[in-house]
């Protein structure tokens, strides 16, 4: 089992290029099933979950070429199966997008219940509510999801919860439904917009993505196209936080500054210096950071996927800071690991109180989920002495070449391949 050995105390300096967005790519890849033809995706992040999904489509009969690590060409014209029970689909949450995509293409789908980070119950009731509103019958028994529809008919759907996954999943089915679907209380994340833009390029008719009301007018045919995945807001935010935590000076390239507004605002509130350019952002860490309060919210609020890395930075600020996790009910498991480094964090339900000015000392840590893994790495970068981070399978699901990128910024980090 691989592990990272990190020597703390080295400020990150230099430039880092951000990869394509994991959570956009995981919606774009199943979406190619809706086109009879060839789709080319560029700026695809070379990470485990993405490679797993490409593998799943290949097992379903899609012809796939990969001219380089970040470009994938799909020809799904020969895909005829609507059942995908392969174990790979159980290993990640995003495999639920196969429901919307296969309903859209075949009006039938059989897949196992999705997996994913252990950060809460993560039901899919809103996904099912949407599919049933479109006329599908959905059954879940023995951990298998079966859905089928004689016809998909456009409908008005009000989401009880703002859900990224349900918004994208229902869009994938509704683009091929007869008539108009109105999705209200929709998620507005950049990756929702990215999938909508891709679907429209394939011939779909989606309006309003990025707002909380999305109007989808079904079409009977969709065609192949070429598309570039947007930069990863969460990967970029992770390096911004690491730059401030190590009192470094980092130029983060290939980003969309607007997607990072909530993170920039919070880092400036703490006392960091931020310079925004067209497609890059410079982040400079300062001494004596101020304590802040954070509440995770759907986009454009502060993203839940960055609350774990942010908690490490807040350990270093002057005074008491709080994090309120309003999206997931169990996303503070990583705190136990930080406490072993000397962090003083009190968790009470969905709130964490973080005492600042704590010197973290290196020790052996294990990542409990993908973004907790990122938090452990940042903790290692700032801690006294050496830190060992295990369970890298989580980290590798969402961060492309993390140790190489950090080495390029002057970190003392090495991956031991056991
Ligand atoms: C997506 O998960 C992301 N994953 C998550 O990123 C991210 O944390 C999350 O959106 C929020 O931004 C992917 O895109 C693959 P939700 P998803 O549906 O779609 C509840 C990462 O680290 N809910 O927006 O599962 C749910 O329990 C991962 O990259 C229902 O109640 O998130 C949660 O409390 C972790 N019923 C809230 O809504 C449903 O049917 C938001 O979940 C669906 C969701």
Q: Which spans of ≥5 residues are poorly predicted at pLDDT below 50?
A: none
For the record, the CATH class of the largest domain is: Alpha Beta
Strand content: 25-35%
Structural class designation: alpha+beta
How many strand elements?
23
Number of helices: 13
Radius of gyration: 21 Å
Determine the fraction of residues in helical runs and give it as a percent range: 25-40%
How many structural units, i.e. domains?
A: 2
CATH topology of the largest domain: UDP-n-acetylglucosamine1-carboxyvinyl-transferase, Chain
The coarse overall form would be globular
The biggest sheet amounts to: 4 strands, mixed
Structural features:
single chain; about 425 residues; alpha+beta; UDP-n-acetylglucosamine1-carboxyvinyl-transferase, Chain; four-stranded mixed sheet; 23 strands; about 25% strand; binds ligand EPZ
What does this protein look like?
- The protein is an alpha+beta fold.
- The protein folds into two domains: 3-19 and 231-416, UDP-n-acetylglucosamine1-carboxyvinyl-transferase, Chain, CATH 3.65.10.10; 22-228, Enolpyruvate transferase domain (UDP-n-acetylglucosamine1-carboxyvinyl-transferase, Chain).
- 30% of the residues lie in helices and 26% in strands.
- The chain contains 13 helices and 23 strands.
- The strands form six sheets. It has a four-stranded mixed beta sheet, with helices on one face. The chain has a four-stranded mixed beta sheet with strand order 2-14-16-15. Strands 4-5-3-13 form a four-stranded mixed beta sheet, with helices on one face.
- It starts with a strand and ends with a strand.
- Residues 22-23, 26, 93-94, 117, 120-127, 161, 163-166, 187, 304-305, 327-328, 370-371, 398 line the site of ligand EPZ.
- Ligand EPZ binds next to helix 1, helix 4, helix 5 and helix 11.
